[in-house]
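Researcher: Please predict.
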Amino acid sequence: MPPRIWRRLFARLPMARSTRAYEFGLERLPTLPPGPVLDIGAGQGYGAAYLSRALAPRPVVSVDIELGCLKPARLEAGPVPPRFVLASATHLPFATDTFALAVAVMTFHCLPQPERVFREVFRTLRPGGVFLLADVDGHHWMARPFEVVEHLFISPLTRAYTPETLTALAREAGFAATAVHRRPGKERGFMQWFVARKAGALGD
């Protein structure tokens, strides 16, 4: 079965509709500058819809390399519904200094050219803007089985990144400050929330 079919089947699972990772991450953000929000990896659109509610009235733009999984009729959007754009995270079709926040939840592990993704996010963030990345921790014992399953059914590009690797990618792209968060009481869990901030009016 082609990987695209597997991706669409996975998108039907309840876990693919969960917004808990978004909620936990937003609670740990520093102060954001004014501006819109970029969601990387639209999927069915539930994450973008949640962001449009949680961060209203900020506009939300969600990108994906394919939009076949979108379920617009099922989305509970905020007062400004998210806009969905067919695009790759390695070549974001947006001007420099556009977004206040970029979010990638369970998406970064399967993106090509991670260095370029970080550079593109950095470029499109406004001064003081923030990149929030939630994904599998490469140090966790589940990281290798996760990669194997993804390689077989979803994408041969999948890689579970360690906090150290994400920090290095962020620094090389130009981000001024980084932090890693985990759920209280679940510090050894497989999920990590990585936050990188671009220097500017709100920062150093």
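Model: Residues 1-85 form one domain.
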